[in-house]
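#struct-help
A.M.: can someone run this one for me? Single chain, 166 residues.
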Amino acid sequence: MLVCGAGFFFTRCDKGSSAWNFLTKKQAAQVRLMSSFIIPSDDEPGALEANVVGFIDKQLATNYQRWQDDYRLGLAAADETSKKLYGRALLDLSPEKMHELLGKFEQNQVPEGTWRHKNASTFFNLIIDHCLQGFYGDPRHGGNLNHVSYQMLKLEVIDTSLIFNS
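D.P.: on it. Structure tokens below:
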């Protein structure tokens, strides 16, 4: 089945079903990889364990629709930048090169012409903001799976479903 949108009513055009609300599988993998460098797992859970990519995907399909083009175009530009700088797609970079690339995004030190929509630094800061929201926010929004950040901060976990579902 082909699901395709027209105008502003639908924002996806994808064959078949997907586990993602907005992101494609490739985009979700790119966001997952970037988020794992922004909030790495160490002796405490990081972005992966908190399901930050799930949060971002869910929010892009609902509350963050205004950033859909930023993600579509920004992730494509990130991949193009990776290919120009390292001859490899973003998802194929070594951890060292990925860390280096994210530093270049942060400083907006990217090849001219690869970022046509917004600059690399603006996009990178948007992803950082959304990663932090997904990591520290209420799990009902799709991130902070199993309250991992609350547990890390030794915060008391309350059942918010009693508050928000009544």
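A.M.: thanks! Confidence is low (pLDDT under 50) at residues 1-15.
D.P.: also worth noting: Helices lie at 25-38, 47-50, 52-61, 68-86, 95-107, 120-136, 148-152, 161-164.
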